[in-house]
Structures are given as C-alpha cells and as structure tokens.
Amino acid sequence: MTQMKTLDVEAIRKDFPILARTVHGKPLVYLDNAASAQKPRCVIDAIRHVYEHEYSNVHRAAHELSAATTEKFEHARRAVQAFLNAREDREIIFTRGTTEAINLVAQAWGRANVSAGDEILITAMEHHSNIVPWQMLCQATGAKLVVAPMDDTGTLILDEYVKRLSPRTRLVACVQVSNALGTINPVAQMAQAAHKAGALILVDGAQAAPHQRIDVQALGVDFYAFSGHKAYGPTGIGALWGRAELLEAMPPWQGGGEMIKSVSFEQTTYNVIPHKFEAGTPNIADAIGLAAGLEYLAARGMDAIEAYEHELLEYATAKVREIPGLRIIGTSARKAGVISFVLEGIHAADAGMILDQQGIAVRVGQHCAEPVMDFFKVRATVRASFAFYNTRAEADVLAAGIRKVQELFS
Ligand code: PLP
C-alpha cells in the first residue's frame, strides 16, 4: 500500500501569489473556489513562458517554434489523460470548459443518437449547463427530459434514479459533485445501472475533478467533462473525455480547419479523434497552463487533497452550525467542500457584501442551479467553497464574519 502524502498547506499557500493580498484592508479569505479557483505560480509562469519563448500556432507549420508549441500542447493532452486516468490521449478533447464539453456531446452525439420518444435522464441537482443543452436537444428531437429526485438533505434518491431508467433512456447526464449543495453522487453505481438499462452516462466533473482523484476507467462512465479554471488552471480551457469508440462514431460538432482530412467543394472527409472535435486554432497557451496546474495537483496528491478538504469541511461545518439562525442547504452524508447557507431575516446579497468588507470572498445567488433553489424554497444562498489552500483559521474568520453580519442586521 502506498502511503498517502500529507499537505504542507503553508507552503502551498505561498505558491498562490494572490493569497497574500488584502481586500478592504483585511487579509483575503478566498472561499469562492467553486466558482473559480486561484492559480499557482507554476500555471502563471507556464503561460508567460509560452508567450515569451515558444509561442506559435500548433500542428501546421514546418518551423521550430511551431514544433515546440505543438509538443507542449500535445503534452498537455497527455497531462489531462493522466489526470483522468484515460486509456488514450486521443480520448481527450480540449474545450473552453465543462459547458462547452457538455454541449459538444449534446449536439454531436445527441443529434446522431437521440430521437422522438427517447429519454435523457438528469438529476434534480444539476447546474444549468447540464440541464439546458439537454433541453435544447429534446426540443430539436422530440426526446423527453426526465429528472431523478433528491431528498431534503440534497442526496440523490438512488432507487428513484434506477426506477427512471428504461429502454427509452439513451443517456444519463449527472453531476459528480453539486456546486450548489456539495453533494457527492455515487457515479460508479449510477453508471452500472445506466449501462444495465442500455444507456450511456456523461458526468459533469466541474466540481469533482479539482478535489478528488478521478479515474474514468474505474468509474465506468462514457463521457467526463471538467473546467480548467476550477482546477487551479487558466480560464477558457477544459476538457471532454469520451471513450474512443464513442468519439470515433460521433459526427463532428463544429466545422473548420484542423478537424478535416481533405476538403473540396463537393466533399469533406474528417480528421481522426481528437482533432475531429477541435475545429480552428485551439487555446494553446491555456492548455499548456492547465497541464502545469494538473501536474501541480498530482504532485501534492489528489488523495491527500481530498482528505485535507474533507477534514476542513467538517471543521467549518461544525463552526457555522453553532450560529443561531443559520440553515445549511445541502446536508448530504457524502459532501465535498461546499457550505451553502441562508441566514434568517437577512438577504444573501447583503450577507455577501458585509463578508466582502471583511475580506471574505463568497458567492451569493442561485449558483446556476435555479431548480435546486426552488426545491429548497429559497431565493438564494450564501456559498462558501473550500480549496486545499484554505485553513481552519479561515473557517474561523468566516464564522466570525457571519456573526458580524447578524449583528449588523439585528
Ligand atoms: N457544472 C458545475 C457543477 C459547475 O459548478 C459549473 C460552474 O460553476 C459548470 C458545470 C460550468 O462550468 P464552466 O462555466 O467552467 O463551463
């Protein structure tokens, strides 16, 4: 058995330059990681290095710079492959992020494989980006969107999920970790049930990939999407992983350069995967930055990161639970580092503003999950979301900050 690493959080904090700054004269307490995480210096340096020393377009030119950039870009693909434990690097398609990855599957796979009377099964806790692309597909094809319910802790009701699988189900699209609640879904179990029913399964890994070890082969899923900017990498880059045989059978999504083998006015033949799905010049420098970020995470150890964040979540949850008038929305037994809450008699936006004045960055609103807010009958929540650079001391600052909000509004 390999021994799990322990995290040197003080050293890690020094790797993230922005964490040293102050906000409104107070040390920054950054608890908006589920929206976008901060970047370690190695990511910033990798992007700067490309532009200063190696930058050129990829795949096309015969010159030295292009060869160097292409090698780095394809190395980035292999870094994503390693991060997800994908079987082959050609199974990794660079996208702008999770949203674009899901839209790619909804449009390219969906239009070829879904027709009237078919069903797409999602869960009640999806982010809008794992609802709307399927609604659009259903509108275009006459298929039906079916929703598996959750209970009042924000846990998926597995029996009800299984009941909703039928020979009509073509695809399950589910979130691995809910951004609004923190719930961790039993994705491997869900995949087994989906396959038994003859359906494929796509996993929205936007909130999971930065916080736990992902092994797409062990999960037994068919598609997996995540965003670089939530995984300590750059904005505007992310990836879709898909099983090679599925990607190969799918028609292309966008047309243009790079995705073709040959073009005439009469006929176009398409390139092999992954290029078939990467029309146009890709986001080269940010893919290289993403690789630096993923390699940084791997060096710290995803198991160690998960264990640390879990312990921090338990500590912070206990702290905020002591506060009278605070209700946590999302109390599932299996949760990742998200605490969503409402304060009696205080609007979430007001709470967010007072916390900000204390240097505490949280998110307020519906978190792109309006159906979740409707289910819990709240208009908005305050969401504190943790990363492996956050500390118990910061959880204490958050709890004290919330009490201050209450004092000001009492
Ligand atoms: N899915 C989940 C669970 C998310 O939390 C988010 C972003 O908040 C997304 C999808 C969309 O990610 P992006 O905006 O990076 O495409």
Q: Which features characterize this protein?
A:
410 residues; alpha/beta; Aspartate Aminotransferase, domain 1; Aspartate Aminotransferase, domain 2; 2 domains; seven-stranded mixed beta sheet; four-stranded antiparallel beta sheet; 17 strands; 17% strand; globular; binds pyridoxal-5'-phosphate
Can you offer a commentary on this structure?
The chain is of the alpha/beta class and 410 residues long. The chain is 40% helix and 17% strand. It has 14 helices and 17 strands. It has helices at 9-14, 41-54, 64-84, 98-113, 132-141, 158-163, 187-196, 216-219, 244-249, 284-300, 302-321, 348-357, 370-375, 392-409; strands at residues 22-23, 26-27, 29-30, 92-95, 119-123, 144-148, 169-175, 200-204, 223-227, 238-242, 260-263, 268-270, 326-328, 338-343, 360-361, 363-365, 381-385. It has a seven-stranded mixed beta sheet, with helices on both faces. The protein has a four-stranded antiparallel beta sheet with strand order 13-14-17-16, covered by helices on one side. Strands 1-2 form a two-stranded antiparallel ribbon. The protein starts with 8 loop residues before the first helix and ends with a helix. The chain binds pyridoxal-5'-phosphate (PLP). Pyridoxal-5'-phosphate (PLP) binds next to helix 4.
